[in-house]
Design a protein that fits this description.
The chain is built from 13 helices and 21 strands. By secondary structure, the protein is an alpha/beta fold. It folds into two domains: about 170 residues, Flavin prenyltransferase-like (Rossmann fold, 3-Layer(aba) Sandwich), CATH 3.40.50; about 210 residues, Rossmann fold, CATH 3.40.50. Strands 12-11-8-13-16-17-19-20 form an eight-stranded mixed sheet, with helices on both faces. The chain has a five-stranded parallel sheet with strand order 2-1-3-4-5, with helices on both faces. Helix 1 links the parallel strand 1 and strand 2. Helix 1 runs parallel beside helix 2, helix 1 packs across helix 8 and helix 4 crosses helix 7. It starts with a strand and ends in an 11-residue tail after the last helix.
């Protein structure tokens, strides 16, 4: 197992780092902790010392009350550095090469993989300066765990909440599996669709499919971190957009078709994760339908274009991955049939009947059907972990030519 250097910075989310430490230990890893002075105002170093069984580093220079630590000694023997939570101030110092604390000095001298989990107020996270700093850390090779959206300590609602401890540990395990970071998709262009299309009934009402876009977002971030140039065609996803990914808005099935057709010829890998509506109203009403005029209305529907099948018919060597969100025990057979019918290399089946998985949840239960006769049923895991498995399967086919259903 690995030796982890856990850096804790100031913020209410610092208490979650105790859970991160516990999970890492349950995974068999050794954990040493360094803290900023501000972090100690939220969680005492004694708590981390008691859980880790090791002395906690807090001071770069010693004084009468606290021993000093040399950052090279702290780094010695460590396989990975994790900063969780990472405050806006510490992220700024890391990005600029500042070394004013023991933690930032350790970062500057660390030569293994680095994982950073930001946590801060929504306004701070969305500020252009923070976005620039995050992009700098990414270019420097750091693995960034995007903060979640939700209710924050100050009462605001929005992005900035520290990712859940299990998701942080999953990212650590991924980074440990590829010391220095996997860059096996450099030079490749990956086109991903995500979200659920909305087909208008009138000016305010629509029919559509459920989808939070989280699986597509995880795939895009994973592909980017592996070196790919990523384009995301998204339909109505309410998630923060990430640096290093190009976004194209496509709110309806028709817009999704047009955008994917335009982007498809230049891509090497297509991953159709979006929930595209199968039917749409033949004609949307002008304005808003007046419900007081009738107790019921009839909306005539027509089939939308099967975007994935259409792209499959025009492929020129791209690797094609489709998704099949099914419900119940017969869903896997339907997913297998979908792969044959649409002549794609891989279909990812996810069972929407599993409580807490798929749709808005952070986890998924998937079966990767293909390439060839391969079929891998995976245990419940985070969507980022699912994304890595999917990309592994797709990456193995790049350059091999269309596999289809052979």
């Amino acid at each position: 197992m690995a030796e982890i250097l856990l850096g804790v910075t100031g913020g209410v989310a610092a208490y979650k780092s105790l859970d991160v430490l516990r999970i890492l230990q349950r995974q068999g890893h050794g954990v040493s902790v360094v803290m900023t002075h501000t972090a100690e105002r939220f969680v005492g170093s004694a708590s981390f010392a008691a859980l880790s069984g090791r002395e906690v580093g807090t001071h770069l220079f010693g004084d009468s009350d606290q021993p000093g630590y040399h950052h090279l000694d702290v780094n010695d023997g460590k396989d990975l550095m994790l900063v969780a939570p990472a405050s806006a101030n510490t992220i700024s110092q890391m990005a600029s090469g500042g070394a004013t604390s023991l933690l930032t000095s350790c970062y500057l001298a660390f030569r293994g993989p680095v994982v950073v989990a930001p946590a801060m107020n929504t306004s701070m996270w969305l500020h252009p300066a923070t976005a620039r700093n995050i992009e700098t850390l990414r270019r420097d090779g750091a693995h960034i765990i995007e903060p979640e959206s939700g209710l924050l300590a100050d009462g605001a609602v929005g992005p900035g909440r520290l990712a859940e401890p299990a998701a942080i540990v999953a990212a650590v395990e991924t980074a440990l599996g590829a010391p220095g970071g996997v860059r096996d998709m450099e030079g490749l262009s990956v086109l991903i669709s995500a979200g659920g299309t909305r087909e208008p009934i009138d000016a305010v009402r629509y029919v559509g499919n459920r989808s939070s876009g989280r699986m597509g977002w995880a795939l895009a971030a994973a592909a980017r971190d592996r070196g790919a140039e990523v384009t995301m065609v998204q339909a109505n996803v309410d998630l923060p957009r990430e640096a290093g990914i190009r976004y194209v808005d496509a709110p309806t099935a028709a817009a999704m078709r047009d955008a994917c057709r335009a982007e498809f010829p230049a891509c090497d890998v297509l991953i159709m994760c979006a929930a595209v509506a199968d039917y749409r109203p033949v004609a949307a009403a002008d304005g808003k339908l007046d419900k007081s005029r009738a107790d019921a209305i009839t909306v005539e529907m027509e089939r939308t274009t099967d975007v994935l099948a259409e792209l499959s018919a025009m492929r020129g060597g791209q690797v094609l991955v489709g998704f099949a969100a099914e419900h119940g025990p017969e869903g896997l057979d339907r997913a297998r049939a979908k792969r044959v019918r649409k002549a794609v290399d891989i279909v990812v089946h996810n069972d929407a009947a599993v409580p807490g998985a798929a749709f808005e949840g952070p986890e998924n239960v998937i079966t990767i059907i293909g390439p060839g006769d391969d079929e891998a049923s995976l245990p419940r895991m985070t969507k980022r972990e699912c994304a890595e498995h999917i990309l592994d399967a797709a990456r193995s086919l790049v350059g091999a030519g269309p596999v289809g259903t052979s």
